[in-house]
Amino acid sequence: MKKLIRPAIVAALTIFLILSCAAIAFSTKPPEILSPVGASLFVQVTSTPPVEEDRSEVGSTDEIIIMGGVIVAIVLIPIILQRKTWLQNNNG
Questions:
Q1: Residues near 31 by Cβ (< 8 Å), separated by ≥ 6?
Q2: Which of 2, 60, 79, 85 has CA atoms 20 to 30 A from the CA of 16?
Q3: How far is CA 71 from CA 59, 61, 62, 80, in A?
Q4: How far is C-alpha 66 from the chain's CA centre?
Q5: Nearest CA to 65 among 73, 55, 77?
Q6: What is the largest CA-CA distance in the chain?
Q7: What is the pLDDT of residues 36-80, one digit of tens each?
Q8: Nearest alpha-carbon partner for 67 in 78, 58, 75
Q9: HEC states along the chain?
Q10: Quick one: how far is CA 72 from the chain centroid?
Q11: The whole model's pTM is what?
Q12: Distance between CA 92 and CA 90 in Å, rounded?
């Protein structure tokens, strides 16, 4: 009997989750469109934003590349230092 309790709880929670998701998804009523002209009422036209002048600077990604190198060093240096002890433990 105890072996069935855990799967029953998981199944009940899964069914509850599925039903609650379905209830949320289908709780709103889609708008009823009686004529094809009615569909055009939902379309909102936005104007194109004006062209801005280019404000990028030459070499502006240098700091990003340096930060990437620092992150790689932070990850690789401990691995390289630990590799020596791993090799000694496997050979010995």
A1: 42
A2: 2
A3: 20, 15, 14, 15
A4: 26
A5: 73
A6: 82
A7: 555 555 556 678 878 888 776 666 677 888 899 999 999 999 888
A8: 75
A9: CHHHHHHHHHHHHHHHHHHHHHHHHCCCCCCCCCCHHHHHHHCCCCCCCCCCCCCCCCCCCHHHHHHHHHHHHHHHHHHHHHHHHHHHHHHC
A10: 23
A11: 0.35
A12: 6
Looking at residue 89, its amino acid is: N
Rounded Cα–Cα distance for residues 41 and 33 (Å): 10
- Token pair of 39 as six digits: 């569909």
The pair of structure tokens assigned to 74 is 């932070």
